[in-house]
Amino acid sequence: MIEKAPCPVLVMHGTRDRVVPISHAKQLHELAGGNAVTPLWIEGGGHDDLYTFESYVRRLKRFIDYDLASATLS
After folding, report:
1. Of 25, 37, 56, 71, which residue is the least packed, with the fewest Cβ within 10 Å?
2. Are 70 and 38 in contact (CB under 8 A)?
3. Residue 37 DSSP class
């Protein structure tokens, strides 16, 4: 039950994932409701290569440094 997660929720997904449709990630993001932070849809990203995209690294760092830190300080 992602909507009951007691923490910020980050969803990242590649637009060219041939295993899990991006619609699943978008639905998870919506279900997370108020706990959802800005998602990242990686243009051209596949199922198992997101870590090779600079945008993935930047967004993950922002999630750790800002989104999580803000949540624990509040």
Report:
1. 71
2. no
3. P
Residues in CB range of 9: below 8 A, 6 or more apart: 2, 28, 29, 32, 35, 36, 37
List Cα–Cα distances, 11 to 47, 51, in angstroms: 14, 14
DSSP, collapsed to helix, strand or coil, labels residue 6 as: coil
Q: Tokens for 48?
A: 């198992």
72 confidence band (pLDDT: 50, 70, 90): low
Q: How far apart are CA 15 and CA 72, in angstroms?
A: 31
Q: Percentage of residues in the chain with pLDDT exceeding 70?
A: 96
